């Protein structure tokens, strides 16, 4: 019996060594998956049947690291999205990305996070099976709506999408457990999926980081990874990753939603190439109307716009500690939505925000200043802000408690 146990321990040890050699990545702690205990494990045959042998007719998305197919499992009863890591990705350490997504999405569930159904790791394949989210990405709707056959998004629809993303990120940052926090590290419009009701779901957790909440410091030092145009400059320069790095990227998404422009557009001149710099410059110069998408559905009340732009600018603060938390962003975006929906009213009460430091402010104070109690006057027409209002906006953008 003792000999049998010893042999079994040796086998387990060798299997662990094999997995570590196959999936090891300096930037990611290896996580060995206990089959059947985390999520459903599909056979390769099930995956091939679901995707008709990875037929290109069922291809719904692709990038440098993976291809995504629409498939049917459980005898056609369930529509799924099948993400198949590419050979190049696997050779470049894609195993850690594979394990990260399984670990992350098996532990953390939220209505604004894409749901993981299962995985397949047979015959050197690395495949993830997600719920099928039918209406494409936020990027598709903002930049490729004509090509994809989507209707343009109204301002209220855009606000609701932003609120959903902010709620999902807030859950990752604060609500997963008392011991762990998650930093997504790749927040961008192509990683925001939309369902039939245009409800947002955050996707792609391959480079996310789990941070212990009681570690005694607010950042984790790591190899810099992310997407050009959305990457936090402070993280890029120092390698110190914080939750505020996600906040910065989300600020880019907010301006992307407002303007309909891409985070980076190489077809434009140097001044307008990067959305972050251009949007901030327009705010400082009092030219906010130039940022707004020209789509006819983008009818925005002045007060809703002001609240939205101020919180978006705060997200892009060069000092991470001066950026708002996702909880604060959620409340201000909900406030902006209320202002837009109640544009026949003269006053919308500001919701209370509790910051990490225990200080309290209101959404009204965030967009109007703590020393001002004057309510917003609603403008029923599409806004082009006066220079005076723009000056107030650009000079009063300040940090909420970090």
Automatic annotation (TrEMBL):
Lipid bilayer topology: Single-pass membrane protein
Residue span(s) of domain Protein kinase: 54-336
GO cellular component assignments: plasma membrane; plasmodesma
Gene3D superfamilies in alphabetical order: Phosphorylase Kinase, domain 1, Transferase(Phosphotransferase) domain 1
Binding site residues for ATP: 83
InterPro entries: ANXUR1/2-like, Kinase-like_dom_sf, Prot_kinase_dom, Protein_kinase_ATP_BS, Ser-Thr/Tyr_kinase_cat_dom, Ser/Thr_kinase_AS
Xref: SMART domains: S_TKc
Any single Pfam family the record assigns to this protein: PK_Tyr_Ser-Thr
Compartments (UniProt record): Membrane
Keywords: ATP-binding, Kinase, Membrane, Nucleotide-binding, Phosphoprotein, Receptor, Serine/threonine-protein kinase, Transferase, Transmembrane, Transmembrane helix
Primary residence: membrane
Recorded coiled-coil stretches: none
Similarity comment: family membership: Belongs to the protein kinase superfamily.
The protein's name in its UniProt record: Protein kinase domain-containing protein
Lineage: Eukaryota, Viridiplantae, Streptophyta, Embryophyta, Tracheophyta
């Amino acid at each position: 019996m003792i000999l049998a146990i010893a042999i079994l321990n040796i086998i387990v040890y060798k299997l662990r060594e094999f997995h570590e050699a196959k999936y090891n990545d300096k930037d990611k702690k290896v996580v060995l998956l206990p089959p059947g205990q985390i999520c459903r494990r599909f056979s390769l045959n099930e995956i091939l049947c679901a995707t008709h042998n990875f037929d290109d007719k069922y291809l719904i998305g692709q990038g440098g690291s993976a291809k995504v197919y629409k498939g049917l499992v459980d005898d056609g009863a369930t529509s799924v999205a099948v993400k198949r890591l590419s050979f190049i990705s696997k050779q470049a350490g894609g195993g850690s990305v594979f394990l990260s997504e399984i670990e992350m999405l098996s532990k953390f569930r939220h209505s604004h996070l894409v749901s993981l159904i299962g995985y397949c790791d047979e015959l050197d394949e690395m495949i993830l099976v997600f719920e099928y989210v039918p209406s494409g990405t936020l990027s598709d709707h903002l930049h490729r709506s004509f090509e994809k056959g989507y209707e343009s998004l109204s301002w209220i629809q855009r606000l609701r999408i932003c609120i959903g993303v902010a709620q999902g990120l807030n859950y990752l940052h604060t609500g997963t457990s008392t011991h762990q926090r998650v930093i997504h590290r790749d927040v961008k419009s192509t990683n925001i999926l939309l369902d039939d009701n245009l409800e947002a779901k955050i996707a792609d957790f391959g480079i996310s980081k789990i941070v212990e909440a009681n570690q005694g410091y607010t950042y984790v030092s790591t190899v810099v990874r992310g997407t050009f145009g959305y990457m936090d400059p402070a993280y890029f320069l120092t390698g110190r990753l914080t939750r505020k790095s996600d906040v910065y990227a989300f600020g880019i998404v907010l301006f992307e939603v407002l303007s309909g422009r891409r985070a980076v557009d190489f077809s434009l001149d140097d001044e307008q190439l990067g959305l972050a710099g251009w949007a901030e410059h327009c705010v400082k110069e009092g030219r906010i109307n130039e940022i707004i998408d020209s789509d006819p559905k983008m009818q925005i009340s002045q007060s809703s716009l002001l609240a939205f732009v101020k919180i978006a600018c705060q997200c892009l603060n060069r000092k991470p500690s001066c950026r708002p938390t996702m909880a604060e962003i959620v409340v201000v975006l909900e406030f902006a939505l209320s202002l837009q929906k109640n544009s026949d009213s003269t006053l919308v009460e500001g919701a209370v925000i509790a910051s990490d430091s225990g200080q309290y402010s209101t959404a009204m104070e965030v967009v109007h200043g703590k020393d001002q109690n004057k309510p917003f006057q609603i403008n029923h027409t599409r806004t082009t802000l006066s220079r005076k209002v723009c000056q107030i906006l650009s000079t009063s953008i300040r940090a909420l408690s970090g």
